[in-house]
Amino acid sequence: MAGGAGNRLWPMSTEETPKQFVDVLGCGKSLLQLTVDRFAGICPIENVWVVTSAKYASLVKEQLPMLPAENILKEPCRRNTAPCIAYAAWKIKKRDPSANMVVTPSDHFVADVQEFRRVIDSSLNFVNGSDAILTIGIKPTRPEVGYGYIEAVLGNSTLSNKEVFRVDSFKEKPSYEVAEAYVAKNNFYWNAGIFIWNVSTIVNAFRVYQSPIASIFEYLMPYFFTPEEQEQVDARFPECRNISVDYAIMERADEIFVFPASFGWSDLGTWLSLHDNLQQDINRNVAIGGDVRFADTRNCFVSTHGMKRVVVIGMDNCVIAEKDNNLLVCKMGEENRIKDITD
Amino acid sequence: MAGGAGNRLWPMSTEETPKQFVDVLGCGKSLLQLTVDRFAGICPIENVWVVTSAKYASLVKEQLPMLPAENILKEPCRRNTAPCIAYAAWKIKKRDPSANMVVTPSDHFVADVQEFRRVIDSSLNFVNGSDAILTIGIKPTRPEVGYGYIEAVLGNSTLSNKEVFRVDSFKEKPSYEVAEAYVAKNNFYWNAGIFIWNVSTIVNAFRVYQSPIASIFEYLMPYFFTPEEQEQVDARFPECRNISVDYAIMERADEIFVFPASFGWSDLGTWLSLHDNLQQDINRNVAIGGDVRFADTRNCFVSTHGMKRVVVIGMDNCVIAEKDNNLLVCKMGEENRIKDITD
Fold first, then answer.
1. Which of A31, B186, B210, B311 is deepest in the core (most CB within 10 A)?
2. pLDDT value at position B272?
3. What percent of chain A has pLDDT over 90?
4. Which residues pair with A173 in a beta bridge?
5. Does A141 lie at the interface with B, CB-CB under 8 angstroms?
6. What is the mean pLDDT of residues B171-200?
7. How far is B52 from B75, CA to CA, in rounded Å?
8. Cα angle at B316 between B341 and B290, to 5 degrees?
């Protein structure tokens, strides 16, 4: 899934170039490229499908030159994750009706790629030949209010994979107090938006729980891999309800499972989360790009693209970010105000 | 005097383009241009002399196209204010031995230009035909530790100008406690580095108190206004002692007078002083250049040249300055650290 337009990381992430296409870590690769790299050894590139807005298709092509062009699915408009996933599921199903499928955002961070691969491999084994809907639950390391939570039913003697548990319920982003209570228990996990299932399972789930969306893709399926595909998708996709897969399927279906995991995951949704995931100096400062000099400064994050030199003196706990001659100076944790101001 | 290389306002002021050549107020004119404008009505442009480093001569020419080229005096190296003033004094004396002379820095700010002109006119009348050395003393508005102070002897019944007083002593930049004590009295003034005298007075003062410097300019005088001037100045000027006019003359001479004045003066030596002298919004923020947006931000100063948009969120009491792709983010008042870091 590469259609988002994250603007909490403005000016690094903009409507024209959202963060999945940006080298936010300063490592030479965009988050999308890192996400594809993460699946090396799990599946070949021909089996990678990128769903994105039509306007980002050329960015995807540019950043993933080895990806077959037909593997880029172009949404004519944003309809949240449920229609996005349905499009990919029906398309993959047409090519291989028994395929197993991993759904992942393309703008997240994973520190321990080896453990990620082990978890995904194990998850694919779990869903193969079953009708299980499996999500990855991240073992929480702090009472984070920016994530949804998954409540698991511990005790799983009947399941084939001892690391997998049944889901009791999905929880919306909590208050701080509620998040503290979740973390104090040992059966609440962050919802990372990563799902594993057999294509027939998710297609059936759409048929049961979101039949209007299912009908649209049943109609579209004959056009997939034909010259009329885009025209038909452009005509019918906008009819899809704007709904997340969590609301559309997860919270309604019965056989939902969670694989609790720890692979150094972050959604990089805020400057703070980005700061926490990068190499910090002794004063907990992070600098990306150019010649950055700190004096008497702590807990600061500097990310610049066009600056020759940046000097930061006497600052604490703030973000300094520049891209394309847009500049943000923001108290860490106040990023939710960026959207209001830049809109 | 336009030879300084103020680096406390980095990156706005740099070695290549020091602040006297920069439009630091965002008004469309550099401080040098504003300084020359301030003398309109006091003397014609042919009587304006600019002493600067040789490397800034073209900047002066560019910014003051109406200034006769020979009125730009080019120092081959920096030797502080005493040799700078001596050069101008001897040169002016050669053209007009009875000229009166105002010495002024070119990188300061004056809010009330009308009052400035009144004070300077009155000062010129006072020194005309006398051997008085007159300085302008700025009535202090706060216990500033960044300025030197002038202690006056109140009671001046013998003087021709009732606004002028004898100087008791010059005081170095004080500690905060000492500055508070100065301000509590009513006979201490900020030393603005503005001097008024007859050229013969200052030439004689150099002969008495700085005879090595005087000898150099006596030697050079015959070359002034000849094709050999620059070559001779380049050869001999470096021999001058590196010393300020305050140490060289003011603190030694006897007949020193002060004209206490209030015309909204600032040396703009720090970002804080610049912030205090510009139009502030209701949250005491100042923005120069580009599209600057503040949220939950107070007492901040933003000065950018190359930015399309600047967003500042949740900040207090800081400076954000960008020029030529150099960026400073600095706690207000910590500017004295800039030099160490950018060197």
1. A31
2. 85
3. 79
4. none
5. no
6. 95
7. 6
8. 75
Dihedral of the CA atoms B204, B209, B212, B217 (nearest 10)? -30
Residue A36 identity (one-letter amino acid): V
In terms of C-beta distances under 8 Å and separation of at least 24 residues, what long-range contacts does B177-186 make, across chains too?
B179/B143, B179/B144, B179/B145, B179/B149, B180/B143, B182/B140, B182/B143, B182/B149, B183/B140, B183/B142, B183/B143, B186/B154
Distance from C-alpha of B300 to C-alpha of B282, rounded to nearest angstrom: 11
Q: What's the DSSP call for residue A191? A: E
Give A25-38 pLDDT, tens digit per residue: 888 999 999 999 99
> Exposed (0-12), middle (13-18) or buried (19+): which is B28, by Cβ within 10 Å?
exposed
- Dist. CA A73–CA A85, nearest whole Å: 11
A327–B contact, CB cutoff 8 A? yes
Residue with tokens 């004056």: B110
In a mutational test of the B interface, the residue from A14, A308, A309, A317 whose CB has the highest number of chain B CBs within 10 Å is A309
- Confidence check: pLDDT of B157 > 80: no
B contacts of A341 (beta carbons < 8 Å):
293, 295, 311, 313
Task: Say whether pLDDT at A128 is over 70.
Answer: yes
Q: What is the ipTM of this complex?
A: 0.81
d(Cα B30, Cα B104) in Å, to the nearest integer?
Answer: 15
Task: Please report, in angstroms and rounded to a whole number, the separation of the first and last CA atoms in chain B.
Answer: 24
Instruction: Name the residue of chain B whose CA is nearest to A335's CA.
Output: B313
Alpha-carbon gap, residue B285 to B306, rounded angstroms: 20
Q: Give the residue among A144, A266, A243 at the shortest CA–CA distance from A194.
A: A266
CA distance B195 to chain A (A): 36
Q: Give the chain A residue nearest B325 (alpha carbons).
A: A307
Asked if B312 and A334 come within 8 Å (Cβ–Cβ), the reply is no
Task: Quote the minimal CA–CA distance from A327 to chain B in Å.
Answer: 5
> Can you tell me the distance from the alpha carbon of B334 to that of B319, in angstroms, rounded to the nearest whole number?
10
> Which two three-digit tokens encode residue A213?
């969306």
Q: What is the pLDDT of residues B111-121, one digit of tens each?
A: 999 999 999 99
| Locus of tokens 């005493």 | B82
Q: How confident is the model at residue B321 (pLDDT cuts 50, 70, 90)?
A: very high
Which chain B residue has the Cα nearest residue A309?
B326
Q: What is the distance between the alpha carbons of residues B187 and B207, in angstroms, rounded to a whole number?
A: 30
* Chain A partners within 8 Å of B295 (Cβ): 334, 337, 340-341
Rounded-to-integer distance, Cα A159 and Cα A132, Å: 11
